Each structure stands twice: as structure tokens, then as C-alpha cells.
Amino acid sequence: YGQRFGHLPRAEQSFAIVPEITPVISDQAAYLSDIFGFNVEPITLVDFDTKRKDSNGKALIVPYKNFPETETAIKSIGAEMWGLDPLMANILGDKASFHKMVAGLNDLGETTLRVPEFEIARRETFTEKAQQVLTTTRKGYEKVGMENEYPLGLIVRPEGVDGGYGNFGLKQMPDGKIRIDPDLNGKEVFYRDTWEDAITATKDHLYKTIKQDHDPEVVISRYIHKKNSPGVSFFIKDGIVFPLGLNQQVQRDGD
Q1: Of 2, 7, 31, 3, which Cα lies nearest the Cα of 248?
Q2: Largest Cα–Cα distance in the chain?
Q3: With bands split at pLDDT 50, 70 and 90, how would you rate the model's confidence at 174?
């Protein structure tokens, strides 16, 4: 998976299967090898299969994401795959499918899990659905007296995007302007004076990179103001949880 593969388990011989080997990926592999204390060799799937056949050995492949297409590729070389069932991984990895699943289980009384108030939009209904979530959120805050204490905002997430890439965060600032943050990384922030203009600008920004004949589902949900996001790893010491952030791991005693 690109230049990350920081999820590799300890092993005497570890390969990071990547689409192609680039200088950036090679540098990342060398960096991880030094941190992990064992060699991590980047390799393409075809070359990995050749190496496995030459050694007459078996292979266990741990995908970064077990999507159906990943399973097909791994099965094509006769290797074994470890992890979640690909169909479940696909549902969990797809923002729209995941929200629908949690909301459906909630309606059936099968779970106490909740997701923030949301609507699922398409290209033609984007503006309407965004305004709908905004109105519902504003009324909810007014009902409990939070309208002047909690930031009003929206999170926009297309189906299938990874992490913050392709997402948008919209938040009303104290001066009334709407702050729009593409990719949720703070690098290309811009502002609009009204919510109507902010929603229109977000839609234009979102769909300018999407082919006209492609109409992905987009989850529009209430903005949650949080201090920290726990990521995928954390450790507990004296009853206190210490998040390590996204894709970070503790590899050695004392780290």
C-alpha cells in the first residue's frame, strides 16, 4: 500500500507487496527495516510469486485492506490471505455502506452504536441533503441551548475514499464565515460568507475531479468537534489510554 506498510508483523522474512517499486517506497522500506529490527523488502506481486515458487514455500499475505479485488489478486497466485472477510472489509471501508449498516442495525434494535446525524447524497441531491443536515443540526443545538457554544458544521465524505483524502470539513467560525477544509489537512482552507455559498463551493470542489458519468454516494454528517482521534493503535498505562496516531506502532520495548 504505497509507502506505508507500517502494519507488518514481526517475521524472519517480510516482504511488502506494492504495485511498483519507487525510490520513495524503497526509502520507506529501509526506514521501517531499521525501526523494526528486521529486513522489509518491497516487491511486486509477480516477483513475489516467482520467489515463492523458487523456494517451494507457502505464503501468508496480510493485505492493508482486504477488498474483493485484493482477494482475487492473492488467490491468483495460490497464496493464503489473512484478515477480515473482503465483503465485510468493503462495507466497513465504504463510508456510505457503513453508515447505512449502523443505522439499519440501530433501527432494528440490534446495536447501541450510533453515528452522527447524516444524509446520503448524490450529485443532484447534494445541496438539498447538505441543507437538510445543517437545519437538523442547528435545531438540535437550539433545543438544548448549545447554538452559541458548539461549532455548527458539516463533514462531507464520498464513498470509498481513504482517510481524509477527498473529504471536506465545513465549520462556522466565530466571525460567521464558513471555513472549508478540503482533505481535512488544513493545507488548502478557504472561506465563504454564507452557508449557501459554502455548500455550493464544496459541491463544485468535490465533483470537479469526478467524471460526469460517475455518481458516487456521499455521506454528509454533523461536524463533531474533537480534541484528538485515537487512530488505529494505542497503549494503556495505569488505566490511561495513550493514542499513537494513525498507522503508528510500538515495535520494541521502551518505545
Answers
A1: 7
A2: 69
A3: very high
Q: Which segments within the chain are labelled E, that is strand?
A: 14-17, 40-43, 60-61, 80-81, 118-121, 153-158, 168-172, 178-182, 190-192, 218-222, 233-237, 240-245
pTM, to two decimals: 0.67
Contacts of 22 (CB under 8 A, 6+ apart): 3
Residues paired with residue 42 on neighbouring β-strands, in sequence order? 16
The C-alpha cell 449502523 sits at 102
44/4 Cα distance (integer angstroms): 15
Q: Please give the share of the chain, as a percent, with pLDDT higher than 90.
A: 33
Q: Could you count the other beta carbons within 10 Å of the beta carbon of residue 253?
A: 5
Between residues 52 and 193, which one has the greater pLDDT? Answer: 193
Cell output for 212: 460526469
